[in-house]
Amino acid sequence: MSVELVDRIVAGDVRSAARLMRGIEDGDAGAFETLEKLYPHTGRAYIVGVTGAPGSGKSTLVGALTSVLRQKRMTVGVVAIDPTSPLTGGAILGDRVRMQQHCTDEGVFIRSVATRGWLGGLARAAAAIIHVMDAMGKDIVLVETVGIGQQEVDVTRLACTSIFVLTADSGDAIQMMKAGILEMADIFVINKADLDGALLVKKELQATLTMNVCPAGGRLPPVVLTEAVNGRGVEELVEEVWRHRQSLSSDGGLQKRKHERARLELTEAVESSLRELVSLGVDGTSQDELVEDLVQRRISPRAAASHIIAQLMKPR
Ligand SMILES: Nc1nc2c(ncn2[C@@H]2O[C@H](COP(=O)(O)OP(=O)(O)O)[C@@H](O)[C@H]2O)c(=O)[nH]1
Ligand SMILES: [Mg+2]
Fold first, then answer.
1. pTM for this one?
2. pLDDT for res 117
3. CB 268 within 8 A of CB 121
4. How would you list the strands of the sheet with 108-114, edge to edge?
5. pLDDT value of position 44
6. In this structure, are residues 164 and 189 in contact, taking their beta carbons and an 8 Å threshold?
7. Is the CB–ligand 1 distance for residue 94 below 6 Å?
């Protein structure tokens, strides 16, 4: 049954893909098996991450990028990850409105994720959805995520090209430095360039980049001004993405990123398997006893953990 589903997804069938994603979301074991079978069909899509503060215009920009890519006859997958809002939340409803023009386009597949609904974390959920879209044959997968925590940083690591969006009316540049975003992003976008201050923010950012990212005069990440609401600057942004892709494929960076991504997914898989094993393999009573021992200081956390691991390793 799942082989048929695999075939249909590889053939690009939207309903089958949506069904699988729902299954993964529900933690259905069969869905994960199907996902495994899809894996050999993945690795072809080019993944672009779009990160930035809420309200910076990421969703609008993703919509505008999708339009430009469709004009170039590329198929597009969009993954919108919102770690804060529940499934029915305003952000995602808003995104739906912003993406409406693409909803009837067969060359575009859109999936919003509120991470609360997903078992096993953001990066895993994102990776699963990206794999499905990749297997469907989408040329480009755009992943939108709010750039705040470690999980989002991990999501950025799934991308081949990472775009960081800030706005003309914010002093984000300094905060970004603290978050280590400067080093992570391949392309910077100053969106809402229709507002005052865009050029100033661009100059400030370029100065910061020159000082911090490549003081030795290496490649300076480009800074692109956009007006996502009316599509201005979006063609240029796409050009920069191609340029980055080109430079990655010529200097071995693409392979390096693919390895990093595989490593990240491997770590995720090991961690979630272990978590599962622990939750299945350790019975409540013995865990309660260990907790009591910890509280009474009869045992250290490390020794208690060794005890649980020894229990898990026992042949059954
Ligand atoms: N003035 C202006 N507003 C924009 C621009 N791009 C997006 N917005 C608006 O900014 C708000 C937040 O946009 P959204 O795409 O939801 O941001 P996200 O939270 O980063 O995904 C919306 O009201 C957009 O219409 C722009 O280029 N100029
Ligand atoms: Mg958004």
1. 0.86
2. 52
3. yes
4. 108-114, 76-82, 140-146, 46-52, 161-167, 187-191, 223-225
5. 94
6. yes
7. yes
Q: Which residues contact 78 (CB under 8 A, 6 or more apart)?
A: 62, 66, 99, 102, 108, 109, 110, 111, 141, 142, 144
Look over the chain and give the mean of its residue pLDDT values, rounded to a whole number.
84
Residues whose CB is less than 8 angstroms from the CB of residue 177 and which lie 6 or more positions away in sequence, other chains included: 208, 212
User: Is the per-residue pLDDT at 187 higher than 90?
Assistant: yes
At 277, list the tokens. Answer: 């094993």
Is 90 near ligand 1, meaning CB less than 6 Å away? no
Q: Provide the token pair at 139.
A: 């040329």
Q: Which residue has the tokens 């100033």?
A: 200
Ligand 1 contacts CB of residue 85 (under 6 A): no
Does residue 58 or residue 123 have the better pLDDT?
Answer: 58
The tally of CA atoms less than 13 A away on the side-chain side of residue 257 is 24
Which of 78, 10, 16 minimizes the C-alpha distance to 47? 78
Q: Could you count the other beta carbons within 10 Å of the beta carbon of residue 293?
A: 15
Q: Measuring from atom 14 of ligand 1, which residue has the nearest CA?
A: 57
The rounded distance, in Å, linking the Cα atoms of 63 and 297 is 56
